[in-house]
Amino acid sequence: MIRFNHRDIPALTLSDYIPSRHFRTILPELREIPRGIREISVVIEFSKDSTFFRTVLPAFYSGMMYIYGYVHDNDRLREIFQEEMAEEYPGRRIGLFDWQEEFLLVFENGSRTCDKRYVVSVEEVWNLLRNCYHPTEV
Q1: For a tag site, which of 6, 9, 15, 45 has the least CB within 10 Å?
Q2: Is residue 35 part of a domain?
Q3: How many domains are there within the chain?
Q4: Distance from C-alpha of 97 to C-alpha of 94, rounded to nearest angstrom
Q5: What's the DSSP call for residue 88?
Q6: Does residue 22 fall inside a structural domain?
């Protein structure tokens, strides 16, 4: 496991890479169903103490620590997934991890040999989940 100091991780604007209008959540049992050809898997992990996001999510997500979804590929994501990040391109994925005061955003290449890490604000993740498509709206 790679050790890092979180103060050294740059920040970015989440909506530049994962705009809410291009993001949809899915139920956990649907993770094995193939995604759209231009979609990238996203996993959002909440800390066990997180209650803030429970007010944003549909009731069927209550108590879940992981929210699964897909984002449509876009120019900003293609900028991230170049060179060694393009390895095993179809298997690339994105993770958002709750650090209470901010979220760690991790872009991983498909072979899981390379990643890029950034921090994003809690408010940006809140806006993403509040304004994206949920299964009851699709």
Answers
A1: 6
A2: yes
A3: 1
A4: 10
A5: T
A6: yes
Q: pLDDT for 68-113, tens place per residue?
A: 999 999 999 999 999 999 888 889 999 999 998 899 999 999 999 9
Three-class HEC string of 5-66:
CHHHCCECCHHHHCCHHHEEEECHHHCCCCCCCCEEEEEEECCCCCCHHHHCCCHHHCCCCE
CA dist 63 and 137 (Å) reads 20
Q: What are phi and psi of 37, to 5 degrees?
A: -60, -30
102, 94, 106: which is closest to 7 by C-alpha?
102
On whether the pTM is more than 0.85, the answer is yes
The answer to whether 63 and 3 are in contact (CB under 8 A) is: no
The boundaries of the domain holding residue 100 are 9-137
User: Measuring CA to CA, which residue among 116, 112, 106 is closest to residue 87?
Assistant: 112
**Among candidates 107, 123, 103, 95, which has minimal Cα distance to 6?**
103
Pairing assessment for the beta strands 115-121 and 66-72 based on DSSP bridges: unpaired
Contact 75, 18 (CB under 8 A): no
